[in-house]
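User: quick one - fold this with magnesium ion bound?
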Amino acid sequence: MTAALQRVCVLGATGSVGMNTLDVISRHPGRFEVFALTAHSRVDELFAQCVKWRPRFAVLPDEATAAELRTRLKKEGVRTEVLSGAQALCDMASHPEVDSVMAAIVGAAGLAPCLAAARAGKRLLLANKEALVVGGALFMRAVHEGGASLLPIDSEHSAIFQCLPEDRTGWPSRIDHILLTSSGGPFRRRDPATMASITPDEACAHPNFAMGRKISVDSATMMNKALEVIEARWLFELLPEQIKVVIHPQQIVHSMVVCRDNSVLAQLGTPDMRVPIAYGLSFPERIESGASQLDFATLSALTFEAPDFQRYPGLALAWETLRSPEGSTTVLNAANETAVAAFLAGTIRFDQIHSVIAQALDAIDLRASGSDSLDALLEIDHRARRQAAQFVKGLAP
Ligand code: NDP
Ligand code: MG
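Assistant: Sure. C-alpha coordinates for the protein plus magnesium ion:
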Protein backbone atom coordinates (compact mmCIF):
# COMPACT_ATOMS: atom_id res chain seq x y z
CA MET A 1 0.00 0.00 0.00
CA THR A 2 1.45 3.41 -0.88
CA ALA A 3 1.00 6.23 1.64
CA ALA A 4 -0.92 9.30 0.47
CA LEU A 5 1.31 12.21 -0.54
CA GLN A 6 1.97 14.41 2.50
CA ARG A 7 2.47 18.12 1.89
CA VAL A 8 4.95 19.46 4.40
CA CYS A 9 5.66 22.98 5.62
CA VAL A 10 9.07 23.25 7.31
CA LEU A 11 9.24 26.23 9.66
CA GLY A 12 12.92 26.93 10.37
CA ALA A 13 14.11 24.94 7.35
CA THR A 14 17.66 26.35 7.46
CA GLY A 15 18.35 25.19 11.03
CA SER A 16 19.70 21.91 12.32
CA VAL A 17 16.28 20.25 12.74
CA GLY A 18 15.00 21.79 9.49
CA MET A 19 17.90 20.39 7.49
CA ASN A 20 17.57 16.97 9.14
CA THR A 21 13.88 17.02 8.19
CA LEU A 22 14.72 17.65 4.53
CA ASP A 23 17.32 14.87 4.73
CA VAL A 24 14.67 12.37 5.88
CA ILE A 25 12.21 13.62 3.25
CA SER A 26 14.87 13.18 0.54
CA ARG A 27 14.98 9.45 1.36
CA HIS A 28 11.31 8.99 0.44
CA PRO A 29 10.64 10.35 -3.03
CA GLY A 30 6.93 10.42 -3.83
CA ARG A 31 5.84 10.22 -0.19
CA PHE A 32 6.31 13.88 0.77
CA GLU A 33 5.97 17.17 -1.06
CA VAL A 34 7.91 20.15 0.30
CA PHE A 35 5.18 22.78 0.17
CA ALA A 36 6.72 25.68 2.11
CA LEU A 37 10.13 26.51 3.60
CA THR A 38 10.88 29.34 6.01
CA ALA A 39 14.11 30.95 7.24
CA HIS A 40 15.26 33.99 9.17
CA SER A 41 18.84 35.04 8.42
CA ARG A 42 20.41 32.31 6.26
CA VAL A 43 19.10 33.52 2.91
CA ASP A 44 21.74 31.72 0.81
CA GLU A 45 20.78 28.43 2.44
CA LEU A 46 17.08 29.07 1.79
CA PHE A 47 17.88 29.95 -1.82
CA ALA A 48 19.74 26.63 -2.26
CA GLN A 49 16.84 24.75 -0.63
CA CYS A 50 14.33 26.42 -2.97
CA VAL A 51 16.43 25.51 -6.02
CA LYS A 52 16.60 21.89 -4.84
CA TRP A 53 13.05 21.40 -3.52
CA ARG A 54 11.01 23.86 -5.63
CA PRO A 55 8.50 24.54 -2.80
CA ARG A 56 5.28 26.40 -3.60
CA PHE A 57 6.16 29.06 -0.96
CA ALA A 58 9.19 30.41 0.90
CA VAL A 59 9.05 32.87 3.81
CA LEU A 60 11.60 35.39 5.12
CA PRO A 61 11.14 37.95 7.93
CA ASP A 62 11.37 41.19 5.94
CA GLU A 63 10.30 42.40 2.53
CA ALA A 64 13.75 43.60 1.41
CA THR A 65 15.40 40.17 1.75
CA ALA A 66 12.28 38.49 0.35
CA ALA A 67 12.47 40.72 -2.76
CA GLU A 68 16.14 39.82 -3.19
CA LEU A 69 15.35 36.10 -2.96
CA ARG A 70 12.48 36.52 -5.45
CA THR A 71 14.86 38.04 -8.00
CA ARG A 72 17.50 35.35 -7.50
CA LEU A 73 14.97 32.53 -7.82
CA LYS A 74 13.43 34.06 -10.93
CA LYS A 75 16.86 34.14 -12.60
CA GLU A 76 17.21 30.45 -11.75
CA GLY A 77 13.80 29.70 -13.27
CA VAL A 78 12.37 28.66 -9.87
CA ARG A 79 8.69 29.60 -9.47
CA THR A 80 8.54 29.59 -5.65
CA GLU A 81 6.37 32.40 -4.32
CA VAL A 82 8.37 34.33 -1.70
CA LEU A 83 6.41 35.89 1.18
CA SER A 84 7.59 37.99 4.10
CA GLY A 85 6.65 38.73 7.71
CA ALA A 86 5.35 36.99 10.81
CA GLN A 87 1.80 36.62 9.48
CA ALA A 88 3.12 34.69 6.45
CA LEU A 89 4.57 32.08 8.84
CA CYS A 90 1.10 31.58 10.35
CA ASP A 91 -0.51 31.50 6.90
CA MET A 92 1.86 28.75 5.78
CA ALA A 93 1.43 26.75 9.00
CA SER A 94 -2.36 26.80 8.54
CA HIS A 95 -2.49 26.67 4.72
CA PRO A 96 -5.41 24.46 3.61
CA GLU A 97 -3.15 22.43 1.32
CA VAL A 98 -0.59 21.66 4.05
CA ASP A 99 -0.89 18.28 5.82
CA SER A 100 2.13 18.40 8.14
CA VAL A 101 4.00 21.23 9.80
CA MET A 102 7.51 20.78 11.13
CA ALA A 103 7.85 23.43 13.86
CA ALA A 104 11.63 23.93 13.97
CA ILE A 105 11.91 27.66 14.62
CA VAL A 106 14.02 28.35 17.70
CA GLY A 107 12.55 30.34 20.59
CA ALA A 108 9.28 32.08 21.42
CA ALA A 109 9.09 33.36 17.82
CA GLY A 110 7.73 29.91 16.93
CA LEU A 111 4.65 30.10 19.16
CA ALA A 112 2.30 32.00 16.84
CA PRO A 113 2.81 29.71 13.81
CA CYS A 114 2.53 26.65 16.10
CA LEU A 115 -0.82 27.94 17.37
CA ALA A 116 -1.96 28.56 13.78
CA ALA A 117 -1.04 24.99 12.79
CA ALA A 118 -2.74 23.57 15.90
CA ARG A 119 -5.96 25.53 15.33
CA ALA A 120 -6.00 24.42 11.69
CA GLY A 121 -5.85 20.77 12.80
CA LYS A 122 -2.53 19.89 11.18
CA ARG A 123 -0.16 17.04 11.93
CA LEU A 124 2.18 19.15 14.01
CA LEU A 125 5.73 17.93 14.48
CA LEU A 126 6.97 19.90 17.47
CA ALA A 127 10.70 20.54 17.83
CA ASN A 128 10.17 24.14 19.02
CA LYS A 129 9.97 23.32 22.75
CA GLU A 130 9.95 27.02 23.69
CA ALA A 131 6.43 27.29 22.24
CA LEU A 132 5.13 24.95 24.97
CA VAL A 133 7.22 26.62 27.67
CA VAL A 134 5.84 30.05 26.75
CA GLY A 135 2.21 29.04 26.41
CA GLY A 136 1.59 25.39 27.32
CA ALA A 137 -2.05 25.70 28.39
CA LEU A 138 -3.05 27.87 25.42
CA PHE A 139 -1.11 25.64 23.03
CA MET A 140 -2.68 22.39 24.25
CA ARG A 141 -6.14 23.95 24.11
CA ALA A 142 -5.50 24.94 20.49
CA VAL A 143 -4.38 21.37 19.72
CA HIS A 144 -7.53 19.85 21.25
CA GLU A 145 -9.95 22.39 19.80
CA GLY A 146 -8.32 22.30 16.35
CA GLY A 147 -8.12 18.50 16.31
CA ALA A 148 -4.39 18.59 15.51
CA SER A 149 -2.11 15.56 15.89
CA LEU A 150 0.80 16.61 18.04
CA LEU A 151 3.97 14.59 17.46
CA PRO A 152 6.97 15.33 19.70
CA ILE A 153 10.29 15.71 17.90
CA ASP A 154 12.52 16.46 20.88
CA SER A 155 14.29 13.10 21.19
CA GLU A 156 13.35 12.57 24.86
CA HIS A 157 9.69 13.32 24.26
CA SER A 158 9.62 11.22 21.12
CA ALA A 159 11.07 8.40 23.25
CA ILE A 160 8.28 8.74 25.83
CA PHE A 161 5.71 8.95 23.05
CA GLN A 162 7.10 5.76 21.50
CA CYS A 163 6.88 3.97 24.88
CA LEU A 164 3.18 4.77 25.31
CA PRO A 165 0.37 2.65 23.91
CA GLU A 166 -1.27 3.95 20.73
CA ASP A 167 -4.61 3.99 22.56
CA ARG A 168 -4.02 6.60 25.25
CA THR A 169 -7.30 6.10 27.10
CA GLY A 170 -6.56 6.13 30.81
CA TRP A 171 -2.79 5.90 30.36
CA PRO A 172 -1.81 8.59 32.92
CA SER A 173 -3.16 6.35 35.69
CA ARG A 174 -0.89 3.53 34.48
CA ILE A 175 2.37 5.37 34.93
CA ASP A 176 4.24 6.41 38.03
CA HIS A 177 6.69 8.85 36.46
CA ILE A 178 8.86 9.49 33.45
CA LEU A 179 12.64 9.83 33.36
CA LEU A 180 14.09 12.31 30.89
CA THR A 181 17.70 11.47 30.10
CA SER A 182 20.37 14.12 29.62
CA SER A 183 23.94 13.89 28.39
CA GLY A 184 24.95 16.41 31.05
CA GLY A 185 26.40 18.60 28.29
CA PRO A 186 30.06 19.40 27.67
CA PHE A 187 30.82 20.63 31.23
CA ARG A 188 29.68 17.66 33.28
CA ARG A 189 33.18 17.11 34.62
CA ARG A 190 34.54 20.65 34.33
CA ASP A 191 36.06 22.26 37.39
CA PRO A 192 33.30 24.60 38.66
CA ALA A 193 35.96 27.23 39.44
CA THR A 194 36.61 27.61 35.68
CA MET A 195 32.94 27.98 34.59
CA ALA A 196 33.37 31.76 34.32
CA SER A 197 35.89 31.45 31.49
CA ILE A 198 33.76 29.22 29.20
CA THR A 199 33.60 30.67 25.67
CA PRO A 200 30.56 30.47 23.34
CA ASP A 201 32.43 28.05 21.05
CA GLU A 202 33.24 25.74 23.97
CA ALA A 203 29.59 25.85 25.10
CA CYS A 204 28.38 25.03 21.57
CA ALA A 205 30.61 21.96 21.21
CA HIS A 206 28.04 19.37 22.33
CA PRO A 207 29.49 15.88 22.87
CA ASN A 208 26.94 13.94 20.76
CA PHE A 209 24.83 16.32 18.64
CA ALA A 210 25.47 19.17 16.19
CA MET A 211 22.67 21.61 17.01
CA GLY A 212 21.80 25.30 16.72
CA ARG A 213 23.80 27.61 18.99
CA LYS A 214 20.93 28.53 21.33
CA ILE A 215 20.00 24.95 22.21
CA SER A 216 23.70 24.08 22.50
CA VAL A 217 24.17 26.71 25.22
CA ASP A 218 20.93 25.49 26.84
CA SER A 219 22.37 21.96 26.89
CA ALA A 220 25.58 23.23 28.52
CA THR A 221 23.65 25.01 31.31
CA MET A 222 21.04 22.20 31.44
CA MET A 223 18.37 24.85 30.91
CA ASN A 224 17.51 22.68 27.91
CA LYS A 225 16.45 19.93 30.32
CA ALA A 226 14.51 22.45 32.40
CA LEU A 227 12.61 23.49 29.26
CA GLU A 228 12.07 19.80 28.45
CA VAL A 229 10.58 19.09 31.88
CA ILE A 230 8.04 21.84 31.23
CA GLU A 231 7.49 20.54 27.68
CA ALA A 232 6.80 17.05 29.06
CA ARG A 233 4.32 18.38 31.59
CA TRP A 234 2.14 19.67 28.75
CA LEU A 235 2.72 16.97 26.16
CA PHE A 236 1.92 14.10 28.51
CA GLU A 237 -0.42 15.80 31.02
CA LEU A 238 1.80 14.98 34.00
CA LEU A 239 2.22 16.54 37.40
CA PRO A 240 5.61 18.23 37.96
CA GLU A 241 6.60 15.54 40.47
CA GLN A 242 5.97 12.83 37.85
CA ILE A 243 8.87 14.13 35.75
CA LYS A 244 12.43 13.26 36.73
CA VAL A 245 15.80 13.77 35.10
CA VAL A 246 18.76 11.40 34.99
CA ILE A 247 22.20 11.99 33.47
CA HIS A 248 23.12 9.44 30.82
CA PRO A 249 26.26 10.62 29.00
CA GLN A 250 26.13 8.06 26.16
CA GLN A 251 22.70 9.28 24.96
CA ILE A 252 21.61 5.82 23.86
CA VAL A 253 18.56 5.56 26.11
CA HIS A 254 16.52 8.56 24.99
CA SER A 255 14.08 8.51 27.93
CA MET A 256 12.01 6.10 30.03
CA VAL A 257 8.54 5.51 31.44
CA VAL A 258 8.26 3.97 34.91
CA CYS A 259 4.87 2.24 35.14
CA ARG A 260 2.67 1.77 38.22
CA ASP A 261 3.99 -1.78 38.63
CA ASN A 262 7.59 -0.49 38.41
CA SER A 263 8.15 -1.99 35.00
CA VAL A 264 10.35 0.43 33.02
CA LEU A 265 9.88 1.09 29.30
CA ALA A 266 12.73 2.74 27.39
CA GLN A 267 13.44 3.75 23.82
CA LEU A 268 17.01 3.27 22.58
CA GLY A 269 18.93 4.21 19.47
CA THR A 270 21.97 6.04 18.19
CA PRO A 271 21.77 9.76 19.00
CA ASP A 272 20.45 11.05 15.67
CA MET A 273 17.58 13.54 15.31
CA ARG A 274 16.49 11.88 12.08
CA VAL A 275 14.90 9.05 14.11
CA PRO A 276 12.31 11.19 15.94
CA ILE A 277 11.82 13.25 12.78
CA ALA A 278 11.14 10.15 10.66
CA TYR A 279 8.73 8.84 13.30
CA GLY A 280 6.90 12.18 13.41
CA LEU A 281 6.61 12.19 9.64
CA SER A 282 5.42 8.60 9.32
CA PHE A 283 3.56 7.84 12.60
CA PRO A 284 2.09 5.29 13.18
CA GLU A 285 4.23 3.73 10.46
CA ARG A 286 8.01 3.48 10.57
CA ILE A 287 10.18 4.64 7.68
CA GLU A 288 13.90 4.62 6.95
CA SER A 289 15.57 7.56 8.75
CA GLY A 290 19.20 7.44 7.65
CA ALA A 291 20.39 6.87 11.24
CA SER A 292 22.89 4.10 11.87
CA GLN A 293 21.87 1.03 13.87
CA LEU A 294 22.97 0.47 17.45
CA ASP A 295 25.69 -2.14 17.71
CA PHE A 296 25.11 -3.70 21.14
CA ALA A 297 28.23 -5.86 20.82
CA THR A 298 30.43 -2.76 20.83
CA LEU A 299 28.52 -0.71 23.41
CA SER A 300 30.86 -0.72 26.37
CA ALA A 301 28.54 0.71 29.04
CA LEU A 302 25.33 2.59 29.62
CA THR A 303 25.75 4.70 32.73
CA PHE A 304 23.31 6.80 34.74
CA GLU A 305 23.74 9.30 37.54
CA ALA A 306 21.70 11.91 39.38
CA PRO A 307 21.96 15.49 38.08
CA ASP A 308 24.07 17.90 40.12
CA PHE A 309 21.71 20.77 40.94
CA GLN A 310 24.59 22.92 42.17
CA ARG A 311 26.51 22.66 38.95
CA TYR A 312 23.28 23.27 37.00
CA PRO A 313 21.23 25.70 39.13
CA GLY A 314 18.81 26.42 36.27
CA LEU A 315 17.47 22.87 36.23
CA ALA A 316 15.45 23.25 39.45
CA LEU A 317 13.66 26.25 37.95
CA ALA A 318 11.56 23.89 35.82
CA TRP A 319 9.69 22.47 38.81
CA GLU A 320 9.67 25.82 40.60
CA THR A 321 8.05 27.67 37.69
CA LEU A 322 5.57 24.83 37.04
CA ARG A 323 4.38 25.24 40.64
CA SER A 324 4.21 29.05 40.35
CA PRO A 325 1.48 31.19 38.72
CA GLU A 326 0.90 30.63 35.01
CA GLY A 327 3.17 32.93 33.09
CA SER A 328 6.23 32.00 35.20
CA THR A 329 7.48 29.61 32.54
CA THR A 330 6.98 32.41 29.99
CA VAL A 331 9.29 34.61 32.10
CA LEU A 332 11.78 31.75 32.46
CA ASN A 333 11.93 31.28 28.71
CA ALA A 334 12.19 34.98 27.85
CA ALA A 335 14.95 35.60 30.40
CA ASN A 336 16.84 32.54 29.20
CA GLU A 337 16.63 33.61 25.55
CA THR A 338 17.87 37.08 26.49
CA ALA A 339 20.71 35.77 28.66
CA VAL A 340 21.85 33.18 26.10
CA ALA A 341 21.87 35.79 23.31
CA ALA A 342 23.97 38.07 25.56
CA PHE A 343 26.39 35.22 26.32
CA LEU A 344 26.71 34.32 22.62
CA ALA A 345 27.34 38.01 21.85
CA GLY A 346 30.13 38.09 24.44
CA THR A 347 28.29 40.52 26.73
CA ILE A 348 27.96 38.30 29.82
CA ARG A 349 29.84 35.28 31.14
CA PHE A 350 28.57 31.69 31.01
CA ASP A 351 28.05 31.55 34.79
CA GLN A 352 26.00 34.76 34.68
CA ILE A 353 23.25 33.25 32.50
CA HIS A 354 21.61 31.76 35.57
CA SER A 355 21.71 34.97 37.61
CA VAL A 356 19.92 36.90 34.82
CA ILE A 357 17.15 34.28 34.75
CA ALA A 358 16.80 34.08 38.54
CA GLN A 359 16.68 37.89 38.86
CA ALA A 360 14.04 38.21 36.14
CA LEU A 361 11.88 35.56 37.81
CA ASP A 362 12.14 37.46 41.10
CA ALA A 363 11.44 40.84 39.52
CA ILE A 364 8.41 40.13 37.35
CA ASP A 365 5.07 40.45 39.12
CA LEU A 366 2.46 38.28 37.42
CA ARG A 367 -0.47 39.03 39.69
CA ALA A 368 -2.20 41.37 37.24
CA SER A 369 -1.28 39.37 34.12
CA GLY A 370 -3.49 37.04 32.13
CA SER A 371 -2.05 34.05 30.30
CA ASP A 372 -5.04 32.83 28.30
CA SER A 373 -4.28 34.54 24.99
CA LEU A 374 -1.30 34.95 22.72
CA ASP A 375 -1.32 38.71 23.33
CA ALA A 376 -1.27 38.25 27.12
CA LEU A 377 1.64 35.81 26.89
CA LEU A 378 3.55 38.08 24.53
CA GLU A 379 3.06 40.97 26.96
CA ILE A 380 4.69 38.88 29.73
CA ASP A 381 7.39 37.74 27.32
CA HIS A 382 8.26 41.33 26.30
CA ARG A 383 8.23 42.56 29.90
CA ALA A 384 10.56 39.74 30.97
CA ARG A 385 12.92 40.42 28.04
CA ARG A 386 13.11 44.12 28.94
CA GLN A 387 13.79 43.26 32.57
CA ALA A 388 16.42 40.63 31.69
CA ALA A 389 18.10 43.10 29.31
CA GLN A 390 18.42 45.54 32.23
CA PHE A 391 20.13 42.86 34.32
CA VAL A 392 22.43 42.03 31.41
CA LYS A 393 23.34 45.72 31.17
CA GLY A 394 24.19 45.75 34.85
CA LEU A 395 26.53 42.78 34.38
CA ALA A 396 28.26 43.88 31.17
CA PRO A 397 31.94 44.75 31.72
P1 NDP B 1 18.78 26.45 14.64
O1 NDP B 1 19.28 27.68 15.27
O2 NDP B 1 19.75 25.55 13.97
O3 NDP B 1 17.62 26.81 13.60
C1 NDP B 1 16.57 27.65 13.93
C2 NDP B 1 15.71 27.91 12.72
O4 NDP B 1 14.74 28.93 13.06
C3 NDP B 1 16.47 28.47 11.53
O5 NDP B 1 15.85 28.07 10.34
C4 NDP B 1 16.34 29.98 11.71
O6 NDP B 1 16.51 30.70 10.50
C5 NDP B 1 14.92 30.08 12.23
N1 NDP B 1 14.68 31.26 13.06
C6 NDP B 1 15.50 31.77 14.03
N2 NDP B 1 14.93 32.85 14.61
C7 NDP B 1 13.75 33.03 13.99
C8 NDP B 1 12.71 34.01 14.12
N3 NDP B 1 12.78 35.01 15.02
N4 NDP B 1 11.62 33.91 13.31
C9 NDP B 1 11.53 32.92 12.40
N5 NDP B 1 12.48 31.97 12.23
C10 NDP B 1 13.57 32.02 13.02
O7 NDP B 1 18.00 25.66 15.79
P2 NDP B 1 17.76 24.08 15.91
O8 NDP B 1 17.36 23.51 14.61
O9 NDP B 1 18.90 23.48 16.65
O10 NDP B 1 16.52 24.06 16.91
C11 NDP B 1 15.22 24.40 16.48
C12 NDP B 1 14.23 24.06 17.60
O11 NDP B 1 14.26 22.66 17.81
C13 NDP B 1 14.60 24.69 18.95
O12 NDP B 1 13.43 25.02 19.62
C14 NDP B 1 15.33 23.59 19.68
O13 NDP B 1 15.20 23.68 21.07
C15 NDP B 1 14.59 22.36 19.16
N6 NDP B 1 15.39 21.12 19.16
C16 NDP B 1 16.55 21.04 18.44
C17 NDP B 1 17.30 19.88 18.45
C18 NDP B 1 18.56 19.76 17.62
O14 NDP B 1 19.13 18.68 17.56
N7 NDP B 1 19.03 20.79 16.97
C19 NDP B 1 16.91 18.73 19.27
C20 NDP B 1 15.65 18.90 19.95
C21 NDP B 1 14.93 20.06 19.90
P3 NDP B 1 17.99 31.10 9.94
O15 NDP B 1 18.80 29.85 10.03
O16 NDP B 1 17.73 31.48 8.53
O17 NDP B 1 18.49 32.19 10.80
MG1 MG C 1 16.00 17.04 23.75
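One thing worth noting: Residues 12-18, 39-42, 61, 104-106, 109, 127-130, 154, 209, 211-212, 214-215, 273 surround NDP (ligand 1) (CB under 6 Å).
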